[in-house]
Design brief:
Its EC number is 1.13.11.5. It is built from three helices and 30 strands. The protein is globular. The chain has about 400 residues and is mainly beta.
Amino acid sequence: MAYYQAMGSIPPKRHTQHRRPAGRGKQGELYYEELMGEEGFSSDSSLLYHRNIPSTIAGAREWTPGDLSTVPNHPLQPRHLKLHDLFAAKDVKTTDVVTGRRLVLGNGDVRISYVVAGAPSPWYRNGVGDECVYVERGRARVETVFGAFDVAEGDYLVIPRATTHRWIPRRSTKDPLRAYAIEANSHISPPKRYLSKYGQLLEHAPYCERDLRPPQGPLLAEDVGEKASDEAEVYIKHRGNGPGGIGGTVHELPFHPLDVVGWDGCLYPYAFNVADFEPITGRVHQPPPVHQVFEGWNFVICNFVPRKVDYHPLAIPVPYYHSNVDSDEIMFYVDGDYEARKGSGIGKGSVTVHPGGHAHGPQPGASEASIGAEAFDELAVMVDTFRPLDLGEAGRAVDDGQYAGSWNRGRS
């Protein structure tokens, strides 16, 4: 996110001495400065000041980050995946957001996973790309080297590549933590058309910097009731030769990961709640790009929120039939009544897969039924990819096998 933040203790000028407090007339030891930057020193970055040398590891071992195998969507057809069938209630207490993710869909640019978690995660770092995690239900505290977040239903949390963090579900809520994880092989940012040449969100954007929540920081080991000397393990997802080109390693650290006394720059995690997205509407049906909230390499993320709909006197509020010539369209239904899908069996927790090469649109009768509607009460997260998505083990496990025939119903 290209606007500047500074937190904690930093020196007046970068790449200069920054020392720990010491007695009168004495110089303390240097803090260790780390540049965390994108695109080889030519894009956004932040400087972090550590108590310990950030390169230090005491040991390493391999880690297999779940079943990342995929199969093509062959024969080509639309699908309905019922994510709420993936996790048994008895298993939630021991499942965490990191190691418990199950792969729903993926390709060489992005992976979509789902998890229902009740246990704290290990320390974790994604070395492959940025993550955008949508909180469907529940609450959690997310502790990162930049600071902490309290996230809840409707929050997106965008976490830059290589950010060490952990997820701690809040057990006092009635709903378990349900998270929809979008993992990029690239960086994730606001749409370029909403940004000035210097990175400010423009007036026509559906949200602005005021809506983005930076971390609460800095955050040190003693701030979370732990010791700076506590040893830790960090689970790292990285490029490798496993399924999807992904490998896993656990690094053993001889100190606590929360050792950053201060940082500044334009690269850091941030949260955004879907309720702060201001929908763009028109006299006739608006195309999906008006719902876009983020983008990565070869994919976009959109959200469909409660909104007033088309006000032309002859408008048909639900979408027209359209053929995804260049993309697969993945819709995750979170809340409300999705008008275009009535009669298809789609409900909360459903994911629809509309692949490129297949024309799709409202279910039979939905267009006529929508005429005269003034507002839609729906909440959904959509990912459109520009390369075909394959089915992960979780997607294969909860495919209803019937959705492709749902447009045939009611034919005379």
